[in-house]
């Protein structure tokens, strides 16, 4: 089995996409992450849903989870409002890292190794310089675990 057998069209966002719109897209389509493209339409980064949360959750709550418990429920339910006016660019990691991108001929083991190495829930599939879509962790596991 190859990447071409698992690839599906996948939503993309740009660096200037409002991060709240990216969060809505993640939620509405039940996605593990999004492909961030550059001005030429090429994959620039993968934005896992956890990075969106990292931007929204106050740093003091990330550093000390006990502090999250003392925030009243009304304020705790509204923490995503802090994303207003922020862009995907701000949600991406600052340090460069390996981009999880491969070609349609990649085997499932190659895809799995790339996901594991890059800690990415999806891999972008490029064919002849064009983005074909992505293989998600869910699609990979579904196919591998099928009877």
From TrEMBL:
Family matches, as Pfam families: CBS (PF00571)
CBS domain ranges (all copies): 95-147
UniProt cross-references to CDD domains, sorted A to Z: CBS_pair_bac
Coiled coil: none
Domain of life of the source: Bacteria
UniProtKB keywords: CBS domain
Name of the protein in its database record: Putative transcriptional regulator
Lineage of source species: Bacteria, Bacillati, Actinomycetota, Actinomycetes, Streptosporangiales
């Amino acid at each position: 089995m190859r990447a071409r057998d698992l690839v599906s069209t996948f939503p993309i966002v740009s660096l200037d996409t409002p991060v709240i719109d990216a969060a809505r897209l993640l939620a509405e389509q039940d996605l593990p992450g999004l492909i961030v493209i550059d001005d030429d339409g090429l994959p620039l980064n993968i934005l896992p849903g956890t990075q969106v949360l990292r931007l929204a959750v106050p740093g003091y709550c990330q550093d000390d989870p006990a502090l999250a418990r003392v925030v009243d429920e009304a304020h705790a339910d509204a923490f995503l409002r802090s994303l207003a006016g922020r862009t995907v660019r701000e949600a991406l990691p600052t340090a460069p890292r390996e981009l999880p991108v491969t070609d349609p001929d990649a085997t499932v083991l190659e895809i799995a190794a790339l996901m594991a190495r890059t800690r990415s829930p999806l891999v972008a599939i490029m064919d002849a310089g064009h983005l074909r879509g992505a293989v998600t962790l869910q699609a990979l596991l579904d196919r591998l675990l099928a009877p």
